[in-house]
Amino acid sequence: MKIAFIGLGNMGAPMAANLARAGHDVTGFDRAEVSVEGVTMAASGAAAADGADVVITMLPNGQILRAVADEIVPAMQSGAVLVDCSTVDVDSARAVAQQAVDAGLLAVDAPVSGGIGGASAGTLTFMAGGSDASFAKAAPLFDIMGQKAVHCGASGAGQAAKICNNMILGVTMIATCEAFALADKLGLDRQKMFDVVSTSSGYSWTMNAYCPAPGVGPQSPADNDYQPGFAAELMLKDLRLSQQAADSADADTPMGQAATALYEQFVEQENGLGRDFSAMLPRFEKRGRG
Ligand code: NAD
User: Fold this and answer.
1) Which pLDDT does position 3 carry in this prediction?
2) Which one, of 78, 31, 26, lies nearest residue 48 by Cα?
3) Is the distance from CB of 27 to CB of 39 less than 8 angstroms?
C-alpha cells in the first residue's frame, strides 16, 4: 500500500519504520526535520497525502490534528482512509472524521496504548472508531504496528475507550500509591503489602504489573529511579481529556476529577515533569495529612 505518515515523533517514527520494513511504500512528513529508516520525506503534509491509499497521523493534540486535516483532506484521493493514531479529544476526533467522510474518504480514530516500547516492537494496542469499511481497510496496518486492534464503534469510540481506560489507570495508580504510603506509616512491610494485595480484591494492573514501590513486584520504572515509562505529564494530558469529555457529555467523574487535580499539582508544582506517573508514591511518602 502507498502510505503517508504525518507526525514522526517518539511514537510516529518507529511506527512508520515498521510499516516500511513490512514492505509498504511510506512517505512521511513532520514539521521538524527528521529522518526515518525506509521512509521517503515529503515537503508538506499535502504532498505526502497526495495519491496515498492510507494517511496516518500521529500528532500532539486535537488542535494540531484539525489544522493538519484541513491541509491534507483536500489532497487525499477519493476512497482513501485517514487513520488518526494521536490521543486527542473526542470532539476533534469526530469533527475530523466527519470532514473526511464529507470529502468522500474513510476515517478511523485509532489511539494506541503501549508507549514508545510498543511502537518500536510493533506491539501496540489500537482502539478504533469508525465504519466497518474504514476499520477493515486499516486493520492490516494495525497488525503490523501492533498486536491487537479493537473496533470499539463509530467515530470517536476509539478515543472514548482510550480516555476511559486511562482515567481508570490514573485513579488506580493514585489509590495504589496512597495505600502504600499509608501501609508505611502503619509499619507494614511493602513486600507483605504486595503479597497480600496482589492476590486479594485490591489487586490491579498498577499493583500487579507496574508496582510503584521499588524492589517489589515485577521490574517497573520504580526500579529505575522513576524514569518513564509513562511520564506523569502524559498521564495528565489523558486525564484532562477525560474531564473535557466528561464536561461535554455531562458525566459525573469525581475520582477522575481528583486524579486530574493531583497529577496537575504533581507535574506543575512538585517537579513531577519527566518522572514516571508511579512517582506519586515518593510524593505521598513525604506528606502528612495537613
Ligand atoms: P511527539 O511530540 O514526540 O511527536 C509529535 C510529532 O508531531 C513531532 O515530531 C512534531 O514535530 C510533529 N508535529 C507537530 N505538529 C505538526 C504539524 N502541524 N505537521 C506535521 N508534524 C507535526 O509525541 P509522541 O510521544 O510521538 O506522541 C504522539 C501522540 O501519541 C500524542 O497524541 C500522544 O498523546 C500519543 N501517545 C503517546 C504515547 C507515548 O508514550 N509517547 C503513548 C500513547 C499515545
Assistant:
1) 98
2) 26
3) yes
Parallel/antiparallel/unpaired status of strands 124-130 and 106-109:
antiparallel
Using most ligand atoms within 8 A of CB, pick from 15, 30, 165 the residue to mutate for ligand 1: 30
Cβ contacts of residue 18 below 8 Å, gap of 6+?
119, 122, 144, 145
Q: Is 217 in the pocket of ligand 1 (CB under 6 A)?
A: no
Q: Which of 29, 31, 227 to mutate to test the pocket of ligand 1 (most atoms within 8 A of CB)?
A: 31
Is the separation of the CB atoms in 107 and 96 below 8 Å?
yes
Question: In the chain, which residues have pLDDT < 70?
Answer: none
pTM above 0.85, yes or no: yes
Contact 56, 34 (CB under 8 A): no
Q: How far is CA 58 from CA 13, 28, 276, in A?
A: 9, 11, 22
How much is the pLDDT for 139?
Answer: 98
Of the candidates 155, 152, 17, 16, which has an alpha carbon nearest to the alpha carbon of residue 81?
Answer: 155
Q: What separation in Å is there between the alpha carbon of 29 and the centre of ligand 1? A: 12
Q: What are the strands, taking DSSP E only, across 167-276?
A: none
Cα of 191 to ligand 1 centre, how many Å?
Answer: 38
User: Which atom of ligand 1 approaches the CA of 238 most closely?
Assistant: 34
Report, as residue numbers or ranges, the catalytic residues.
Answer: 162
